[in-house]
Amino acid sequence: MSLALEGDSLVPLTDNTPVSGNAMTFPSDETTPWGSSGVRAYWVGEAGAPTLTKPVLDMATLRLRKLVAFCPATDELLADSTAMAAYLSRKMGEAIRWKANDAILAGDGVAKPKGIFNADALVSVAKEGSQTAATVNSANVAKMLARLPVYAMARARWVMHQSVLPQLITMTIGDQPIWTPPNEGIKGAPGGLLLGRPVLYSESCATLGTVNDIALVDFGSYRTITKSGAVAIEMAQSMHFYFDVGAQAFRATFRRDGAPAVGSAIGRKNGSDTLSPFVVLATRS
Prior knowledge:
This protein has five helices and 18 strands. By secondary structure, the chain is α+β, with helices and mostly antiparallel strands.
C-alpha cells in the first residue's frame, strides 16, 4: 500500500473516498450562483415574497476497477536471491503507482478510470498568433491561469512533460522570472513553482509543442474511490500455477476508480469564455 500510494503518487492529491463495497454514487451540483438554475439568492423588498429556487442534482457513480501486477519467478531465482520476493513486491508497487497516475491524467474510461485529459470539462487555451512551434511562453501560462476558477487556484498544480522544462528556466514577464527553481524553502514543490503554483513532471504528458504537454490542474476536482481497509492492495503468492516448471507467481491487485468531478466547463457571469479546474495548452505547430 505504501509503495503504491507514496512518493509521486497522484491519488492522495485527488478527492479520494475509501469504500468498503464495490461502488459509490455521488450527488453532483454544477450550477453557479450567477446561473439560471440551482440554488440562487434574490434581493427582496419590504413585505416582498422570496423567489423559490431548488438544487439541481445529478448522480455520478464510480465502480471499483482492478489494476493487477502479475509476475512469476523460478524457485532457483528465489533460492539464490534471498531478497527477490521483496524486490518483486517493490517493483510491482512502483508499476501500480505509475499506472494509477497515468489513468488519473490520461485514462480513456474504458475498463479504467477516466482521466483529466479526457474530461468533458477540459479547457484548451489557444496558442499566440505568431508563436514559434514547440514552445511555451509567459503569455500561454498567464492565459491558462486566467481560465482556472478562483476556488481552484490555491490547490492547483502544473503538470508537464520534462521537455517543457528548458522553456520554464528562461521564462519571464518583463524582467521578472515566473518560474522559481527548487530550494530549501519549497521542498514540497520539487519541480519548482510556476506563477506561484507547484510543478509536477509526468511521462503521461505529451512532448513539447503537443496538446497535453503542459496542464494546470486542480486535483481536488478529480474524484477517486479506493478499496478501504488493510486489503486495499492485495498481495498473493502461489506455487501452484507454475508448479510444473518450478516457479512461483506473485500478484498485486489494487482496486480503484476515478473520474473528473466536474462534468462541463463553467460559464462566467461576465464574458464569453469558460473556466475549468482542468486547463491545457493547444498544440503549437
